[in-house]
Predict the structure.
Amino acid sequence: MNYADIILIAPEISMALLASIIIIVDLFSSNKKLLAPLSLTGLLAPLCFCIMVRDNPSIGFNGTVKVDDFSVFFKYVIILATGLVILSSTTYAKRFDKHQGEYYSLILLSATGMMLLTSAIELITIYIALELTALPTAALAAFIREKKSAESGVKFLILSAVSSAVLLYGMVLIYGFTGTTYLSEIGTVIANHLSTSGQVTDNGILLFSVILITAGFGFKISAVPFQMWAPDVYEGAPTPITGFLSVASKAAGFAIILRILYTVFENETLSSDWASMMAVLSAISMSVGNLIAIKQNNIKRMLAYSTIAQAGYIMVGLAAMAGNTTLNTSGPVGILVYLAGYTFTNLAAFAVITAVSEDSGDDSIDSFAGLIKKSPTLAVIMTVSMISLIGIPPTIGFMAKIYLFGAAVETNLTWLAIVGVVNSVVSAYYYLRVVKTMFIDSPDEKHEIHPNLGVLSASVIAISGTVFFGFFPKPIIELARDAINTLIG
């Protein structure tokens, strides 16, 4: 390790140091109000380091970490999500009393793991980054110290451990087959093998390892049939953490999936097999997620099933990676655009949910009754969020779906695009149900809701991004295209 290596992971180091500083300040200061502003201000350090390393892409730590436009794109998304979640937590964290420092530091440590994951290009590094992401998140899921929250944390911890074991077993088989843990070298060995055998199914070890790795990462992105953890964990976790899980964790998961696909499985035969498998999983995920979401009365559970459906939409881009015979970029670019837009949209929704649940002490959809009278600002923000999740213009959700479904059509997956459009129509039922509740139903208690400055700021910033990039998506599209071109190059 040398100075160049340290600079390469400076964003992660600064994020981890910020988490340590928060713990130290919390230890020696009785003023807990300092923690959130300090955490937000401290995020400027990893952000500045990301800008710095983007101008000097390179590989370090003996070829285990790669910093390029692709990884930096996801680091931006993760930092944005972390900042908005911390901003949304300024009042919510007060219920943790003396443990607010641990709350903020665990968020930052989980973000550190996610950022490292986007740069990892070696199996051991990938696994370490995944665990650094999962363990703090499991603690955060159980942070309320109530029965439901404790169950949430335990379920996430156990199922995360199982998925990690499955993923690790797949990695071990890959290592046994190729004799290396480096993604580029693994890709070379597999390509040489397929040039002689021609089919993945001709080698049981390789086929089994691909299945295990798919299952391991399927848990991370909450895709069917690996989604069983999401509803209970989303319901029991602190509301800001639910939002954090729904966007940041998903972004990091898709980042490493894309890197593995383009680095290891770029062979035409194997990429075609991946495309077929991802197309089926995509259709099942969006259908199951949307259909079950219709029956939910708890808004956090509803959005949990919604995020399963959203994973299905995003996987359309993975399926569209393989055209007739070669890898293309329109699908992956659509994935990056969708994840950026989803970050703005979903965190705006969860900021509003945080404000409403703090006021009512209830997470049911009925608690939103008459919100237009209680807080017109929150009602409008929630409405725009729901519209964007459906994919209605002029929001970033509409532009992202157009990009993804268009990529599917370009790669002869018209049937998958049709399934996506039909599911978007189905999703309108439960998203617009929330809008109907806010504007038409009468509230049980006729009093105004005055969200604190942090929640209001987070929701306004997030919804502004949702609308602005709906009208002007070009900056995100160009960043996404540069990121994918770097990944391919």
